[in-house]
Amino acid sequence: MGDPKAVAAQIRMKLPSLTPLEGKVASDILARKDIDEATPLREVAEKSGVSDAMVVKVAKKLGFAGFREFRQGLVDYNRSDTAALHSEISLQDSSSEIVQKVFRTAMQALEETFAILDLAAFERAVEYLHRAKQRDFYGLGGSAQIARDVAHKFLRIGVRASVFDDAHMMMMSAALLGPDDVVVAFSHSGTTAAVIEAVELARKNGARIIAVTNYAESPLAGLVDVVLCSTAQNAPLLGENATARIAQLNLLDALFVAIVQRDRATADQNLDRTMRAVQSKRRS
């Protein structure tokens, strides 16, 4: 699978495409830290309570040639510095340990998201957003907060974007879009019904669609022109969504900077104008 840092992320991204049993097997094996080059297929299968054939099937559905390549990918990942960043938080942890674990978990999400980033998709997203007549951002809950953060950055440089975090408003937006417009759909799971329905309508009307999600094979990802994936390991207290948002914010920051570079002179001019406009609101 190339970069060892990307192995766990690429496995997690494919989990929605597996059956519940296959997903359990994949998650069980991914969570193990004791697998090495000599670990036999039979032992792995027995630990997961399935047949040898099921483990091989899961390995192939995850994109590996077979069990041996799957095993080697996990070994390489577990030996990487990135894998060592994550530690579960326990009730016995001191404040120092809590801070360290939270920060290191965020660092792992950034490292893994960078490792799986599709630069060709990233560049297409930059081109679509730069050339768009109208840019509409869709997201609910935590995803809406990311959409607002990005829209705020864009406004500072004179790139107009609208944020819709209500199912009805998203559908109204989608109904008015056309081939010169772009939707950025934010959904960690890629299964948010309100977002998917609005994306379907926007796509029907000819708009380009960019998805920001954690799962490359989710229902949302299957509908769009460009998929930008974040990734994060699930943690009982922090949750997968919260950690992934940190990676998504950084991913969108990179997108913002790339768009600025398309017309740096205009961006700098608009940034100066918007900064001066709010200067009077600050107390000296």
Automatic annotation (TrEMBL):
Look up keyword Lipoprotein and say if it applies: no
Citing just one GO molecular function, the answer is:
carbohydrate derivative binding
List residues of the HTH rpiR-type domain. Answer: 5-81
Endpoints of the signal sequence: none
Pfam short name (any one) = SIS
| Residue ranges annotated for the SIS domain, each copy included | 125-265
Gene3D superfamilies assigned to the protein according to its UniProt record, in alphabetical order: Glucose-6-phosphate isomerase like protein, domain 1, Winged helix-like DNA-binding domain superfamily/Winged helix DNA-binding domain
InterPro entries from the entry? Homeodomain-like_sf (IPR009057), HTH_RpiR (IPR000281), RpiR-like (IPR047640), RpiR-like_SIS (IPR035472), SIS_dom (IPR001347), SIS_dom_sf (IPR046348), WH-like_DNA-bd_sf (IPR036388)
Report if keyword Transcription regulation is assigned: yes
- UniProt GO BP: carbohydrate derivative metabolic process
UniProt keyword terms in alphabetical order: DNA-binding, Transcription, Transcription regulation
Can you say what this protein is called? RpiR family transcriptional regulator
